[in-house]
Amino acid sequence: MNAHEIDYQIYGEEMQFVEIELDPFETVIAEAGSFMMMDDDIELATIFGDGSHREQNAGLWGKVFSAGKRLLTGESLFMTAFTHGGSGKRKVSFASPYPGRIIPLDLQEYEGKIICQKDAFLCAAKGVAVGIEFSKRLGRGFFGGEGFIMQKLEGDGLTFLHAGGTVMRKELAIGETMRVDTGCLVGFTQDVDYDIEMIKGVRNMLFGGEGLFYALLQGPGTVWVQSLPFSRLADRVMAASRQYGGKNKGEGSVLGGLGDMLDGDNW
């Protein structure tokens, strides 16, 4: 194996975190902002790119190009590496950014490659290459919700994705298709054929409230779907903020607006 062999345990229900157990000199890489806590003897280092063997063998300009591609997915040029530099076993934990599920994936079980949303990656064993996947279809690029670029994870180690709400794993047989809201699609294996299909019917398009396009996926392969995309959650929060002006308005309280006054909101 090229990737480090790590052990893990996932805790929690709605707001999960994953605890990674490291042997001496083992390393886990993560996106900035996902770190939660760690034991003594674990050293934190900011690295250029993902630190995979493929990137290390690419030379200086190869590393610059590989890291630069991450900017296209909205990520930073740098990642954070956590290495156990002592003896025995030590643990480091990474938390979900919003309510949902952490999905552990062994890339060896999926022919060494997973394609996913740009913001789905949480952390992985060192040696997993975090890159981008360009769409070759205009329809998928313009209307797929992820643009022309998705994230790809390659290698033979463990990687962890995060998705909102409840996550369903769907196994597609050869030729079997499914339609998914473009925002609800988390990721899929490399053999899945992914395209965009327009919703039929003018009434559905104008008044259905479900957007204009579906993600059309055809097997064989595995697909992961989330029930609560972050964009949908953010839209609801913003709508509520505009409606109530950032105040509680006594919702659910027998005191109503009087409760807000007693709390000091209206003084």
Could you provide a short overview of the structure?
By secondary structure, the chain is of the alpha+beta class. The protein is 19% helix and 40% strand. It has a single domain, classed as Mitochondrial biogenesis AIM24 (Double-stranded beta-helix, 4-Layer Sandwich), CATH 3.60.160.10.
Can you characterise this structure?
This protein has a 6-stranded antiparallel beta sheet with strand order 5-6-3-10-13-8. A 6-stranded antiparallel beta sheet has the order 11-12-9-16-19-14. A 4-stranded antiparallel beta sheet has the order 1-2-7-4, with no helix packed on it. It has helices spanning about 55, 60-70, 140-145, 200-205, 230-245, 255-265, and strands at about 5-10, 15-20, 25-30, 35-40, 40-50, 80-85, 90-95, 100-105, 115, 120-125, 130-135, 150-155, 160-165, 165-170, 175-180, 185-190, 195-200, 215-220, 220-225. The protein is globular. The model is unreliable at about 200-210, about 250-255 and about 260-265 (pLDDT under 50). By secondary structure, the chain is an alpha+beta fold.
